[in-house]
Every structure is written in C-alpha cells, then in structure tokens.
Amino acid sequence: MKIYTKQGDEGQTQLVGKRVKKTHARVEAYGTLDELNSCIGLAVVYATEEKHGDIVADLTAIQHELFDLGGDLANVTKTQDWKIDLHAPEKLESLIDMYWKEAPPIKTFILPGGGRLAAQLHVCRTVTRRAERLTVNLEVDRIPPTALPYLNRLSDYFFAVARAVNARNGREDILYEHGKDKQK
Question: Where is the Cobalamin adenosyltransferase-like domain positioned along the sequence (predicted)?
C-alpha cells in the first residue's frame, strides 16, 4: 500500500459522511488537534529527558484522547456514541488541581518559558486555545458535548503543568512586567 492516494490533489478531503474542501471548518479543527498532538509529542520527548514520568503518562493519554476527539470532529453523521471519554474534562480537573499545588502562588501574568519542557507546554497551551476557537465554529449538535469543556480544561492543564515543571526543576516563572515599567 502506498502512503499517497492522490485523492486530495484537488484540495478536497473525506470526512466521515461527506467530501469537503480542505479549508472546511471541521478539517481546520481536527487538523489543529493533529498539530497539537505533534506539539505534545515533542513535550513527551522533553519530559522523558527530564525524567517526569507522571507527565509523560499524562501527555501520552492526552494524545490518545485527541485522536478520539479528532475522529469525532471528522464525523459529520454522528450525534452520539462519541469516541472521546465524556468524563475527560473532570479527569483533567483532578490533574490541574494536583499540579497547581506544586507551583508557588502567582499574583501577575507570567510569560511562557522557564525551561525547555515548560516552554513547549506553553506552546501546547496556545495551540489548544486555537483548536478550541475553531471547534466553537462547528455545529454544536454534531460535536461531543464534552469537546469544548475538554479543550478549555486542556489549556489550563498545560498552564498548570508548565508551572509545576518549572518549580520541580528549580526555575522561577518569568513574571510579566508592563512595557512602560521595563523602559526605566
């Protein structure tokens, strides 16, 4: 079997139940989930190198959940029996609460960064927000009821874990300073 089919050469692709342009809102949404999954893959490499086994396990589970959600978003015929676990947002909330306790309290915005893994987790956070914005544009009756809550929690998860990683690695968050104050 060849990897190329040539069926997309005219700018169209196949959703489950419908052939559409590659710029279709659903393709944009699940394509962004695929991009996010690749970003997470890099974070897994960094987390493995830094020996954060718990985070590697979380991220790997999230990658599988994103494949499930992407499959759900690619199906225009489905209105129930979703692949994504309907309790996935609550599971993320538990993880967020756990990791949030590892980092010191914050009273201001922080800049993405710290260490390499934390910076990559912030990239994951921002790509998740884009996926969320794109998913909002889909017909609400044709996406899992948990899709938007899941993506909303997932970006919070990445923020909490990025801060926890910096704390574990002895790195301080980079605090935002108003631009006018920086010029002095």
Answer: 3-164
Question: What is the tens place of the pLDDT at every residue in 47-105?
Answer: 999 999 999 999 999 999 999 999 999 888 877 789 999 999 999 999 999 999 999 99
Contact (Cβ atoms closer than 8 angstroms) between residue 15 and residue 25: no
Copy the structure tokens of residue 34.
């695929």
Question: What residues have CB less than 8 Å from 69, skipping those under 6 apart?
Answer: 30, 33, 83, 84, 144, 147, 150
CATH architecture of 12-182: Up-down Bundle (1.20)
